[in-house]
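Structure (tokenized):
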């Protein structure tokens, strides 16, 4: 069930998509979902939560793993738009500034992390699934799933990570709970929820969905409520190119993340069933 786009499941009677009738959160197991709920509830609310946005890193195109890949102009526009939503609480790193050391340092200080870059799932060696960032001194710019574990990245402040990248929530599931290889290290590092894509996505169309998602998350909706609203917006869009299932359905919330921008006593938000 790891690769099922639950939002796009359609009723045989009403022909309505599941996302039209329910808020959806996924988890590899009941144990992981409980961990996510408890972790989110335990996280302290800070007065000025920092947001880190990574967009269109200048990855080393001579790397064998990068053969045939192009720069992501849509990811840069996506990052700029999301940066604007969270101002003055946001930092953006793109082009040559989007390095592995910079990511690891700033992510540990951020409540929300958004990465718009190339990701490559490795079904044969899941822990070698990777995100391509910009090279820096003594670093190729390759951030592997196992690196997040080995470097023991502290994400005590990070409530949500959004991986706006192809197959970032896909690939061969690993571990007894069947979590995707790029998602599992983040959960192990203490992040309550990750938003990722089940299959290849276009940087041109994912911008519309994820900018809408962040706008609602910034307003105080939790991650699943915000994603549902964004998916419905595309489903009912006046632009025909945004309405197909393949455009809005790949992204899903793994875990649970309330918004760090919501009032601490805000209990009126819609919750998943």
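Design, position by position:
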């Amino acid at each position: 069930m790891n690769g099922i786009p639950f939002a796009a499941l359609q009723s045989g009677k009403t022909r309505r998509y599941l996302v039209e009738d329910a808020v959806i959160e996924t988890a590899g197991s009941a144990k992981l979902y409980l961990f996510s709920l408890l972790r989110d509830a335990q996280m302290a609310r800070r007065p000025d939560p920092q947001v880190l946005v990574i967009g269109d890193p200048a990855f080393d195109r001579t790397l064998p793993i990068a053969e045939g890949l192009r720069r992501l102009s849509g990811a840069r526009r996506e990052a700029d738009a999301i940066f604007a939503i969270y101002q003055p609480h946001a930092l953006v790193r793109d082009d040559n500034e989007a390095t592995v050391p910079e990511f690891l340092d700033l992510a540990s200080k951020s409540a929300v992390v958004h990465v718009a870059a190339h990701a490559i799932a490795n079904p044969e060696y899941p822990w070698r699934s990777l995100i391509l960032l910009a090279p820096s001194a003594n670093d190729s710019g390759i951030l592997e799933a196992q690196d997040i574990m080995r470097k023991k990245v502290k994400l005590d402040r990070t409530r949500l990570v959004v991986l706006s990248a192809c197959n970032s929530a896909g690939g061969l599931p690993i571990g007894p709970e069947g979590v995707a290889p790029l998602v599992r290290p983040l959960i192990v590092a203490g992040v309550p929820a990750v938003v990722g894509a089940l299959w290849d996505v276009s940087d041109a169309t994912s911008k519309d969905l994820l900018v809408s998602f962040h706008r609602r998350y910034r307003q105080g909706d939790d991650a699943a409520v915000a994603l549902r609203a964004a998916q419905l917006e595309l489903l009912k869009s006046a632009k025909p190119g945004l309405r197909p299932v393949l455009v809005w359905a790949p992204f899903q919330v793994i875990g649970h993340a309330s918004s760090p921008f919501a009032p601490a006593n805000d209990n009126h938000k819609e919750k998943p069933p």
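Reviewer-requested clarification: Strands lie at 51-57, 90-95, 112-116, 119-120, 130-132, 142-144, 160-164, 193-197, 251-255. Helices lie at 30-42, 73-86, 100-107, 145-150, 184-188, 203-219, 223-235, 245-248.
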